C-alpha cells in the first residue's frame, strides 16, 4: 500500500525540522501545508484510509497502510493551504507489489 511523501524546496529552518533520512536535503515534507478538510481518496478501504498514508506518526507505522476497497486503483486529491512548488511525491509499498514504478 502506498505511503506518499511530497517534498518541495524549503528554507533551511523548515528543512532542519524534518529528519534527513525521510526527505532529501534542501526539501521539506509538505504535510504541514495539507488542507485536511479537503483531502479525498476514492476507492479507499474505510479500515485503511488516506490518513494512514499521509499523517505523521501513522505513515511511519508498518502496521498501518492505505488500501483500496474495490480494485487496484486509488484516486487521491490533496489540497494545500497555500501555493506550493511540488518537486516529487514518494509512494512506498511492499516490494512484491511494486512493478515498473507502479504501486499496486
TrEMBL record:
Q: Which InterPro entries match?
A: Galactose-bd-like_sf, PITH1-like, PITH_dom, PITH_dom_sf
Q: Which Gene3D superfamilies match?
A: PITH domain
Q: Which domain of life is it from?
A: Eukaryota
Q: List the GO cellular component terms.
A: cytoplasm
List, for all copies, the residue spans of the domain called PITH.
19-104
Q: Name one Pfam family in it.
A: PITH
Entry similarity comment: Belongs to the PITHD1 family.
Q: What is this protein called?
A: PITH domain-containing protein
Q: Which organism is it from?
A: Aegilops tauschii subsp. strangulata
